[in-house]
């Protein structure tokens, strides 16, 4: 590490790397872009020129051998094998969600990370959202909730094009990603079991979109939710009911709608008050979650909205990562949380009526 500046290698330079990680790695003083890796030579060349980076790699193993790389951020499709190799190479790791595709793949990574002494975090950026942090303090003030509700119907992902410049790969052979998806699919089917492998797409939806919500829920209430009930709602939506200690029910509704707005919130109902944390479109910068409160005041009802703080969760995630590497802070989103969320995702799917592949 050079003068307390962490050299970061970016593995997988697609959408999320370009929209959120590269700009903050470039901007924050304790981090720098040391190297880039992608299977698209065209994207590598453009980003290398844009960020002034000469160390460009088509193979992540070559990037991991580069001594100027202290840490990596993993933004490919399939993460597990790269996390394993990065930790083995002595690199600190920030891995985008999901940590892996199955709990079976994730468990050894958690053990490896814990034994390594390296910083290893899952990119659950919503846990660094300043609005969510305010919401957590309000939720804690409620005491034991009467009910919890998590609702995520997402919204249109294709509207941010006007906000950011992005280089899309057009030089990757079509079969490369198809092969990667098929290989991950086979591992998922094995993990869900023959009786539930027919839910592969729903499980993937839960990992890609819903893992944020499972993490947000875990951040507020711990990992002790038992699955009481779960059912599919068509091919791209699910309903589940969890039970938290003390008999607190939690309803989970996750699906992919095409709303023009972003539709995602955590709602907690107490005896005398309610808290709702409404998340903004994850691709918007400077747009933290908004906290709405309903409570008793002067013998009547009072509603107020806390507008949040104009910061970006991805930026705060990187500042926390740097604090962990440079100052020994404890990661707030360790790999163990990513494993807990994969475990819960499998338990939700297995609570559904059987559906063989
Ligand atoms: N935190 C969030 O809100 C958020 C948002 C979007 C995506 N993600 C996660 O980030 C990851 C990437 O998503 P994306 O939307 O950027 O996808 P993407 O397809 O736009 O980008 C993936 C990139 O990885 C490259 N790649 C694939 N395999 C590779 C390999 N073996 N070695 C090197 N490069 C490889 C591809 O060429 C592509 O450029 C996914 O795991 C996704 O779940 C997180």
UniProtKB/TrEMBL annotation:
The name this protein goes by in its record:
Dehydrogenase
- InterPro entries per UniProt: Gfo/Idh/MocA-like_OxRdtase_C, Gfo/Idh/MocA-like_OxRdtase_N, Gfo/Idh/MocA_oxidoreduct, NAD(P)-bd_dom_sf
Top-level taxon: Bacteria
Q: Which Pfam families match?
A: GFO_IDH_MocA (PF01408), GFO_IDH_MocA_C (PF02894)
| Annotated organism of origin | Kaistia geumhonensis
**Domain annotation Gfo/Idh/MocA-like oxidoreductase C-terminal: ranges:** 207-352
Q: Where does the record place the Gfo/Idh/MocA-like oxidoreductase N-terminal domain?
A: 6-124
């Amino acid at each position: 590490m050079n003068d307390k500046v962490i050299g970061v290698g970016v593995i997988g330079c697609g959408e999320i790397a370009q929209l959120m990680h590269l700009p903050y790695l470039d901007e924050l003083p304790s981090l720098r872009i040391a190297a880039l890796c992608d299977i698209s030579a065209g994207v590598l060349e453009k980003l290398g020129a844009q960020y002034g980076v000469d160390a460009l790699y088509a193979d992540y193993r070559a990037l991991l051998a580069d001594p100027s790389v202290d840490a990596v951020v993993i933004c490919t499709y399939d993460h597990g094998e790269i996390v394993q190799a990065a930790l083995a190479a002595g690199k600190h790791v920030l891995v985008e969600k999901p940590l892996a595709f199955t709990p079976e793949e994730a468990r050894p990574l958690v053990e490896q990370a814990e034994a390594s002494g390296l910083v290893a975090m899952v990119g659950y950026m919503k846990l660094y959202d300043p609005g969510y942090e305010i919401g957590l303090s309000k939720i804690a003030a409620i005491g034991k909730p009467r009910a919890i509700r998590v609702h995520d119907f997402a919204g249109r992902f294709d509207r941010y094009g006007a906000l950011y410049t992005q280089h899309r790969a057009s030089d990757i052979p079509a079969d490369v990603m198809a092969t990667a998806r098929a290989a991950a699919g086979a591992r998922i089917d094995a993990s869900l079991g023959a009786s539930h492998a027919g839910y592969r797409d729903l499980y993937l939806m839960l990992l890609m979109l819903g893992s944020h919500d499972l993490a947000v829920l875990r951040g507020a209430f711990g990992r002790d939710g038992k699955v009481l009930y779960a059912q599919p709602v068509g091919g791209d939506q699910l309903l589940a009911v969890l039970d938290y200690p003390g008999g607190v029910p939690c309803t989970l509704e996750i699906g992919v709608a095409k709303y023009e707005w972003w539709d995602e919130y955590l709602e907690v109902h107490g005896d005398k008050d309610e808290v709702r944390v409404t998340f903004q479109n994850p691709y918007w910068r400077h747009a933290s979650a908004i906290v709405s409160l309903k409570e008793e005041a002067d013998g009547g009802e009072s509603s107020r909205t806390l507008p949040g703080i104009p910061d970006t969760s991805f930026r705060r995630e990187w500042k926390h990562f740097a604090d962990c590497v440079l100052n020994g802070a404890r990661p707030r989103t360790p790999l163990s949380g990513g494993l807990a969320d994969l475990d819960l995702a499998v338990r939700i799917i297995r609570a559904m009526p059987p559906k063989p592949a």
